[in-house]
Amino acid sequence: ARVPAVSVMNIEGVREGHQSEGLRKYGADFPERHCFTLVFKGKRKNLDLAARGEEDARHWVQGLTKLMGRLQAMSQPEKLDQYPFWIHGVLQRADRNKDNKMSFREVKSMLRMINIDMDDVYAYKLFKECDRSGDERLEGRELEEFCRRLLRRPELEELFGRYSGEDHVLSAEELRDFLRDQGEDASLRQACVVIRTYELNEKARQQDLMMLDGFMMYLLSAAGDILNQEHTKVHQDMSQPLCHYFISSSHNTYLTRNQIGGTSSTEAYVRALMAGCRCVELDCWEGSDGEPIVYHGHTLTSKILFRDVIESIRDYAFKQSPYPVILSLENHCGLEQQATMARHMKAILGDMLLTQPLEGQDPNDLPSPEQLKGKVLVKGKKLPEPWHEPCGVTSLLDPEEEEEEEEEEEEKLQERSSRQVRDSPRAMVLGDHGVPAKDASQVAPELSAVVVYCQAVPFPGLPHALRHPRPCEMSSFSERKARKLIKQAG
Cα separation of 425 and 486, whole Å? Predict the structure, then answer.
């Protein structure tokens, strides 16, 4: 099949070998060293490729990696030089009938391609103002004018005029005053450096003057960002107990689309982890051939193997961040497949999996993210310790409590599924493994053993929790339950 042209600007990463869900499933006929995958930004699907030979694959991977690095290292003026080529490519894709003219429908398509969310009424107003010929089509200079108007920033023009005065040219002194008004300790020399870095007009640059385009270029660059660039990396104290932090978490991580009939994919875990997520969810159900599966139970979502999910987590858990990853297990498996889950995690994750409390750690305090660097923690239910409760496999779930915890989500899910499936030609079916195992309310010792610092328990109520704090226990509850607890606490 013919593959449409791909812009390097849209590539997020290149993976060598069978490092995608598609190649793992269907790439067995191709030698691993011949294969590589292009991962795109946004929601576009991966592109799996197989070269004729190992050397060809290596050249492709090295070349694409070098081009991506070059793009990242580009200065603002260099990026601007690429703008005509980029916008030309967008226009070509949006021009569906290839007549070199743009209808309003095609213009709206173009706006979506460049991530501009514009009100239709305002967009049509701009379109009509630029349509000099009055034929409901933009071409040539009309299209150029439309693109220029899209780039206009009236609020920045007003700000520039306020500091530059009547001549509409910003001197180094005026730029310094502007920078100081923004709270920066700027000198005249620093203002000159900004002008020489961002001013586009060479003659103005040589005279240490800044025009509107250069001013906008600076403000829209990383250097002009209100966010301190040092804060794009972890800069906080990471030596406090784990419970002192907000943790970037993902709900129903395995889903790539909707919760009713969407696709479950290991790629969803890769994207979440690469986005910096540190807590991912696995809804685990009984699978065939003794293999647990992950999917959104009681729905038409597709199923993936628990083992494949753990392999993806192993490969990508710490590429973006060294801090611990929490696997939040929602367990609907019986004792046998729970034990299989524990075996898979131990075998696949190896030393990454935390299976014992850290040596020398105060049992009354949680360890810090710094201490847990490079570790995977399991959040789940745990068997009582022998000295606390009688021995044997014990049911830990209070059915009424658990139902209350999931009540809100289940109600929403049922309401949406009834709306979506009511008129569907295929009925909502659970399949062979849509019902949790009879012994899913029990916890296998093997799975219990890998739960160390994140023990899931029913919430005992605020008074009890305050009187008997247990740092290794955690509870989840719906917004409805949270509001009820707040009301009860006064």
Answer: 45
Distance, in Å, from the CA atom of 223 to the CA atom of 215, rounded to the nearest integer, reads: 12
Among residues 232, 211, 233, which one has the least CA distance to residue 322? Answer: 233
The residue whose two tokens read 């009309």 is 142
406 token code pair: 């999931």
Q: How far apart are CA 461 and CA 405, in angstroms?
A: 13
Q: Is the model's pLDDT at 463 over the cut of 90? A: no
Residues facing residue 331 across a β-bridge:
284
Q: What angle do CA 462, 465, 471 make, to 5 degrees?
A: 135
* 3-state SS, residue 257: coil
> Is the torsion defined by CA of 411, 414, 416, 419 positive or negative?
negative
- The first and second tokens of residue 143, run together, are 């299209």
Q: For this structure, is 235 an active site residue?
A: no
For 81, 198, 224, 488, the CA distances from 174, given in Å and listed in that order, are 27, 16, 16, 59
Measured distance CA(301)–CA(286) in Å, rounded: 15
Q: Which of 18, 34, 296, 344 is catalytic?
A: 296
Which helix or strand (DSSP H or E) is residue 11 part of?
strand 11-16
Q: Which of 88, 168, 244, 251 is catalytic?
A: 251
Asked if residue 302 lies in contact with residue 348, where contact means CB atoms within 8 angstroms, the answer is no
Using CA atoms of 340, 345, 348, 351 in order, give the dihedral in degrees to the nearest 10. -140
- Residue 27 has φ and ψ, to the nearest 5°, of -95, 15
Which of 80-84, 147-151, 180-184, 301-305 shows the lowest per-residue confidence on average (mean pLDDT)?
Answer: 80-84
Confidence (pTM): 0.74
On the question of pLDDT at 222 being above 80, the answer is yes
Query: Angle at CA 380, nearest 5°, toward 378 and 384?
Result: 115
E strand spans, 149-307: 170-171, 209-210, 279-285, 293-294, 304-305
Is-contact 338 332, C-beta < 8 A? no
Name the residue with tokens 């929790």. Answer: 465
CA pair distance 243, 424, nearest whole angstrom: 45
Residues in the chain: 490
Residue 428 CB contacts under 8 Å (≥ 6 apart), including other chains: 299, 300, 417, 421
Cα–Cα distance for residue pair 229/339, rounded to 1 Å? 46
Model pLDDT for residues 148-193, shown as the tens digit of each residue: 888 788 899 999 999 998 889 999 999 999 999 998 889 999 999 9
What does the radius of gyration of the chain's CA atoms come to, in whole angstroms? 28
Mark whether 433 is an active-site residue.
no
